[in-house]
Amino acid sequence: MTHQSPSDQPPICDYEGSDYQTTFWDEGGREYEDQAEAIALKRLLPAGGQLLLETGAGAGRNTQRYQGFERIVLLDYSETQLIQAQEFLGRSARYIYVAADIYRLPFVPGLFDTVTMIRTIHHMADAPQTIHQIREVLQPGGIFILEYANKHNAKAILRYALGRQSWSPFTTEPVEFVELNFNFHPKAIRSWLNKNDFQIERQLTVSHFRTNLFKRIIPDKLLVSMDSLAQLTGDWWQLSPSVFVRSRAVGESPTAPPGEMFRCPKCGNFPLEQHTDSLICGSCSSYWGIQDGIYDFREPRQD
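Above: the chain's sequence. Below: its structure in token form.
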């Protein structure tokens, strides 16, 4: 579902009301992909940290894998996805649920020591701006773990060579194969990271065997073992449909003042005035709602 953003922003892929977790993951025959991604995350995640931002958190599929972190902010544009995450993970001081537009992150600069973006950037019409937003909210030296859909994968190369695909897997521009579903070239991703002061530390290629044939004839456990070995080639070449990148924020940048978390996504002002059911910006007078433990920064409340 496409959400109409303000005129100066790209459109948003909105999963409001979606049963994505159930139909795609729980009942969609994707145990192999899920476990392969779990291995990649384990290899790339820091041993621990104070505050992690999970962008595109959805219903919390990956959240329990961030065991070494004291607190986790789950961010998604869809409120119903966050409600599902709450039902799955529960309410506690460890989890902070935030509905917000990733192009206007509602966090003070330099807040997080780690950010993850798994199966999310492929919905971004302006991927470089997304990466820029992530860099703003990361502390100096913070870790960014990004997964992206790779247009330069072996299947796409073969289809192009056989004339069964019109777009080239070798060019660096994104390809939108379905509305708001983009594949990216590894060179483009690396360029955007470098331009936003990220230093790439490691790359893993994931889901090498994501075809119906392999999944029909090879047990998931064996597929996961094979994928685990193949992932280690990621720094040499990227020919799988999914690529994980660990990068570090370099250069000079702010660190969040102690005790501060949210800023106004409309004007950038902080701190915000805390009330029981809202946060109020003293600069532009925007009201941002809080309901049932979910901070809502998508649109200002009309109070």
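Helices lie at 20-26, 31-44, 79-89, 127-137, 154-161, 186-195, 212-217, 220-230.
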